[in-house]
């Protein structure tokens, strides 16, 4: 399909490039840019869904031919594949540096390769490999989930204690609570029990301030325009630096294997502790995304009458109930291991996948390394489209839009409707239907964490609490508004009512039997 793709040493000859033109042009105006910001390429991908038969066009932003936009599912999977012609490019570096505030010389060091080390494949490749190794399903994944659960359990207990006080139900800002609980629990899963978010419980508020005020353009210009976010970022970087400087090493010693491997990769490239702290801070942004997904899942479940009861029934029926010793009352109490929710609760899992489809962009970005041609022999849309050979120019981005594919009625009937059963029977849609389920691009190495943390969080909240209808003058939990979603959010943040009325449920404890097993193992 792609000339040169099957032969990694293929360099296009002049006659191949000669005469080949770039994919058709679509102009993006100032208004679109101002209105849609970092989502502008996804917006044009959606607007032009059925316009170009081969599902690819060139987006020109204010006259600058910035990117080839792809909105065809098959072409997306072809272009995301490892290739001599394309790689991840500068976009991951841009966000790592723009969010963390790394100096340009540090960025250059990360982008360069050691000329004396023939085996140095570069930072991107290094980071990719270590995540593949340390986040694989099995023991590495289980130990990350065990640390997550160990932090989540007392947070849930304290929420239960505060809700218990009011028998008619207590009002809880669910979004605020989730942001705190996910930041503390996921950071412990990555950086261990001495992670900055575990030792300084107020740090998560700095994270929220940063995330709520982040804008890539503001951070490119001057901290004057972004002072609030920069101040919050500095507080987090200071905390991570203290963690790295801890002479006793107790923090880093108890960190996950993932975090230790990341540190080794950064240290190999000569980064100081302060620079490593900046990298760690910007990694929090993606890692804490399950907070937004969990909120959105609960809001969607509540929006469908009867669905909450079905999920609660599923959680109660399929996750084995174990009687565990209760040291406070010297008796035994019924307990479920909710880290097994994604394995045992098919409807809940389907809902998590469906919500991810609705609330994420799922974009795959690649950079064209040198001029080459792309021959598309078969029309992918419309019966009479001719075969085409396009020239892809060095330096342009390839922006494959998951949003366009997820919103296409050709792939998903009634694509804007929340259908809880859409992914029933699909355990890993990102590998089972890779062209259609674009949430994790091709593919996110944190996907098992996202899926399992979200299902565990939802299952535990649903088991521990009853969600009461909103008070007479209150509004239900808000559903996500994708128009106000920005690229850096990972998943749409709620805009509207985030306060839920909770009552403590009928008594099943959410303990972490599995955690004990993994610890023993
Ligand atoms: C809802 C949350 C998340 C979403 C929607 C998401 C989505 C994505 C997407 C679309 C990509 C680009 C894949 C491509 O290049 O085609 C990606 C890459 C990546 N993600 Fe995530 N992600 C999420 C959370 C996480 C978490 C929690 C982690 C780590 C614990 C993580 C680690 C990574 C890594 C390491 C890559 C680079 C993959 C590579 O080197 O091939 N992500 N993610």
TrEMBL record:
Its cofactor is heme. Keywords: Heme, Iron, Metal-binding, Signal. One of its GO terms (molecular function) is iron ion binding. InterPro entries: CYP450_monoxygenase_sec-met, Cyt_P450, Cyt_P450_E_grp-I, Cyt_P450_sf. Pfam families: p450. The lineage of its organism: Eukaryota, Fungi, Dikarya, Ascomycota, Pezizomycotina. Heme binds at residue 444. It comes from Podospora appendiculata. This is Cytochrome P450. It comes from the Eukaryota.
